[in-house]
Amino acid sequence: MSNDKLIYDFFKNYQDRGMKKWTGFLLSDHTAQIAKSQKSESNSLKSSLKLEEIKAILSTAILEGKIVQVQVKAVDLDGVPLPEIRGHVEAGDDNQVVINRQIINLSEINYLEIVKEL
């Protein structure tokens, strides 16, 4: 029996039973689930700060030129907090602050911290 005939017979009767197809589905579902769990673990609401604490941290950041990381109270449709805003405090007054060209009302800030520069 020739090699070509042997290969032809093998593939003529071969059935993969859909395993290749299902492996692709399982892999994509699995990676999506991992990404979702990592997102929810890394983005949980931190304990809220009082307005006086927020103003004190902002004042320190402005005077020392430090980078801050802000978590706002807003959440997306899945209940996951919006991504944190990180950067230098560019401007501010008693009601608002500007960080990375984003105007944030102080009443919308859930958590704020000064981060170490790398």
Strand content: 15-25%
| Spatial arrangement of strands, main beta sheet | 4-3-2-1-5
Rg to the nearest angstrom? Answer: 27 Å
Helical stretch tally: 3
Query: What are the segments in which pLDDT stays under 50 over at least 5 consecutive residues?
Result: none
The residue-averaged pLDDT reads 80
Briefly note the structural class of the backbone. Answer: alpha+beta
Approximate helicity band: 40-55%
Largest sheet: 5 strands, antiparallel
- The count of DSSP E runs of length 2 or more, i.e. the number of strands, is 5
- Gross geometry: rod-shaped
- The CA-CA distance between the termini, in Å, is 69 Å
Q: What is the element string, with H for helices and E for strands?
A: HHHEEEEE
Structure write-up:
The protein has 118 residues and is of the alpha+beta class. Helices cover 42% and strands 25% of the residues. β2 (85-92) and β3 (96-99) form a beta hairpin.
Topology (SSEs and partners):
Elements: H1 3-13, H2 19-42, H3 51-64, E1 67-72, E2 85-92, E3 96-99, E4 102-105, E5 109-115
Antiparallel strand pairs: 1-2, 1-5, 2-3, 3-4
Keywords:
alpha+beta, 5-stranded antiparallel β-sheet
